[in-house]
Specification:
Blueprint (H helix, E strand, L loop, with lengths): L1 E3 L7 H10 L7 H4 L2 H5 L1 H4 L5 E8 L17 E2 L8 H17 L6 E4 L7 H7 L4 E2 L5 E2 L7 E8 L18 H5 L17 H7 L6 H7 L2 E3 L3 H4 L26 H4 L4 H8 L8 H15 L6 H5 L7 H15 L1 H12 L5 H11 L6
Parallel strand pairs: 3-8
Antiparallel strand pairs: 1-2, 2-7, 4-7, 5-6
Helix pairs in contact: 13-15, 15-16, 15-17, 16-17
This protein binds cobalamin (B12) and iron/sulfur cluster (2 copies).
Organism: Methylobacterium cerastii
Keywords: 4Fe-4S, Cytoplasm, Iron, Iron-sulfur, Metal-binding, Oxidoreductase, Queuosine biosynthesis, tRNA processing
InterPro entries: 4Fe4S_Fe-S-bd, 4Fe4S_Fe_S_CS, QueG, QueG_DUF1730
C-alpha cells in the first residue's frame, strides 16, 4: 500500500485519448464513457488530495505456461482461479478507508475496477512497481502477480517516490504474445488480446485468432508468466486469494458439457462468471477444436444444436478442426439444414464450401 497525488501522472489524458483514438479498446465502450474522469482523478472527484493504491499478491503455485501443453484441458488465467478479487480487494480497501475516515474530517472513496480510475499508472506513481512493456504493473518483490485497488481521499498524505522502469532491453513479453497484441512496447491493442477476446468480447471470435487461443478458455497469462522478474514472486499467502484446485486444468470434455445452471454453480463467486455460460462455452469449443484429440469431437458435436448461436457456431468450427469437412457433411444434414443464424451459417459455409485456392 503506497500513496501518490492526483496530479502525479500528467501524461494520462494524452495517453488514454491516443489509445481510445486508435480504437484499441474494441467494444469496451465503458472505457470511453467518462474518459475525462478516468484520465484525471480530480475530474472524477474534485475533493481528492491523495490517492492510496493497494496491491494484492495472487502469485500462482505453478507456472501458467505449463498448462498450455495440456491440450485436453482448459487454461484459466491465474487471477480467475480463485475468489473474485473485486470482493477481496474491495473488502481490504473498505477496511482501510474506514480506519482513515474514523480519524476525523477525512472523506474517502474506494475503487477497484468499479469506477473510471487508471489503477496501473497510479500504482506506478505510488512506487508499488512499474508498468512493464506489457503495460501491466510489476514489482521487484512480487513479479507480475498483483491486483490493484485505490482509495481517493481528501487527506493530505505524504506521497511515496515512484518506482523506475526496470525492463531494460528485455522484450520477452512482447515476443511471447500469441496474437501479436503489442503494436509497440508499453502499448496494447486490446482487440488482439486473448484476455479481451475470451472475456470482454461478446460475439463470435474472428477466425484469425482461433488457433492462437489454444486451450485458453478464460483470459491469458503468457506475457505475465514469461517475465524474468517472476523469479522474486511467491504464492499468494492470503487465504482469501487461495487458488481453487478444481480450476487448475479442468478437462475440456467436462467444461463443454456445462449448461447454464451447472456453469453458475461451478463458477459462482469467481471472475469466470463474468462471461456467462454461452461466451465461456464459445471459448471452450475453440479449445476443443485446437486439442487435436478426436475423442473430444463428441463434445463439440453435442453443442451443434445448442440454443445459443455463438455456441453452435464454435461447435461447427471445432467439429471441422477435429474431423475435417467430409466427416462434417452428415452433421450439417442433421443440425445445419434448419439453421437461420447468419453467423452460424457462415461457419458451415466456411467449413463445407471453403473458397478455392488461387
Ligand atoms: C481495460 C482493462 C483490460 C483490457 C485492456 C488492457 C490494457 N492493457 O489496457 C483487457 C481486457 C485486454 C485486460 C487484460 C488483462 N487485465 Co485488465 N484491466 C483493464 C482496466 C479495467 C483498465 C486498464 C486501462 O486503463 N487501460 C487503458 C490504457 C490506455 O492504459 P494503460 O494500459 O495503463 O496504458 C498505458 C501505457 O500505454 C502507457 N504508455 C503509452 N505510451 C507509453 C510510452 C512509455 C515510454 C511508457 C513508459 C508508457 C506508455 O500509458 C498508458 C496510460 O498509463 C484495469 C482496471 C483499472 N481500472 O485500471 C484492469 C487491469 C489493468 N487488468 C488487470 C489484469 C490482471 C489483466 C490480465 C492480466 C488478466 C488476464 N490474465 O487475462 C490481462 C493482462 C493483459 C495485458 N497485457 O494488459 C489488472 C492488472 C494488475 C497489474 N498488476 O497491473 C488491473 C489493474 C485490474 C486490477 N484491479 O487489478 N484488461
Ligand atoms: S494477455 Fe496474452 S494475448 Fe494478451 S497481450 Fe498478454 S500474451 Fe498477448
Ligand atoms: S518480460 Fe521483460 S519487457 Fe516484459 S515486463 Fe518483464 S522485464 Fe519488462
Amino acid at each position: 500500500m503506497q500513496v501518490t497525488r492526483p496530479e502525479a501522472v500528467p501524461e494520462l489524458p494524452g495517453r488514454l485519448a491516443a489509445w481510445l483514438g486508435e480504437g484499441a479498446h474494441g467494444t469496451m465502450d465503458w472505457m470511453q464513457d467518462r474518459a475525462d474522469q478516468r484520465a484525471s482523478p480530480r475530474t472524477l472527484w474534485p475533493g481528492v488530495r491523495s490517492i492510496i493504491v493497494l496491491a494484492t499478491n495472487y502469485g500462482p503455485e505453478t507456472d501458467p505456461l505449463d498448462l498450455l501443453a495440456r491440450k485436453d484441458r482448459g487454461a484459466i488465467a491465474a487471477y480467475a482461479q480463485r475468489r473474485d478479487y473485486h470482493d477481496v480487494v474491495k473488502g481490504r480497501l473498505k477496511e482501510l478507508g474506514g480506519y482513515l475516515s474514523a480519524k476525523g474530517d477525512v472523506r474517502v472513496k474506494v475503487f477497484c475496477d468499479t469506477a473510471p480510475v487508471m489503477e496501473k499508472p497510479l500504482a506506478a506513481a505510488a512506487g508499488l512497481g512499474w508498468q512493464g512493456k506489457h503495460t501491466v504493473l510489476l514489482s521487484r518483490r512480487h513479479g507480475n502477480w498483483l491486483l490493484l485497488g485505490a482509495i481517493y481521499t481528501s487527506a493530505e498524505l505524504e506521497p511515496d517516490a515512484p518506482e523506475t522502469d526496470r525492463c531494460g532491453s528485455c522484450r520477452a513479453c512482447l515476443d511471447v504474445c500469441p496474437t501479436n497484441a503489442f503494436p509497440a512496447p508499453y502499448r496494447l491493442d486490446a482487440r488482439r488480446c486473448i484476455s479481451y477476446l475470451t472475456i470482454e468480447h461478446a460475439g463470435p471470435i474472428a477466425p484469425e485468432f482461433r488457433k492462437a487461443i489454444g486451450n485458453r478458455v478464460f483470459g491469458c497469462d503468457d506475457c505475465l508468466a514469461i517475465c524474468p522478474w517472476n523469479k522474486f514472486a511467491h504464492a499468494a499467502r492470503d487465504a482469501r486469494m487461495a487458488a481453487d484446485p478444481a480450476f487448475d486444468a479442468p478437462p475440456l470434455a467436462e467444461l463443454a458439457g456445462l449448461d447454464d445452471a451447472a456453469f453458475r454453480t461451478r463458477f459462482a463467486g469467481t471472475p469466470v462468471k463474468r462471461t456467462g455460460r454461452d461466451r465461456f462455452l464459445r471459448n471452450v469449443l475453440i479449445a476443443v477444436g485446437n486439442s487435436g484429440d478426436p475423442a473430444l469431437a463428441a463434445s463439440a458435436e453435442r453443442n451443434l444444436g445448442d440454443a445459443s448461436a455463438i455456441v453452435r457456431g464454435m461447435a461447427v468450427w471445432a467439429c471441422g478442426a477435429l474431423l475435417g469437412p467430409a466427416a462434417c457433411r452428415p452433421l450439417y444434414e442433421r443440425h445445419g439444414l434448419g439453421e437461420t443464424d447468419p453467423d452460424v451459417l457462415a461457419e458451415w459455409r466456411a467449413l463445407l464450401d471453403p473458397p478455392e485456392e488461387t
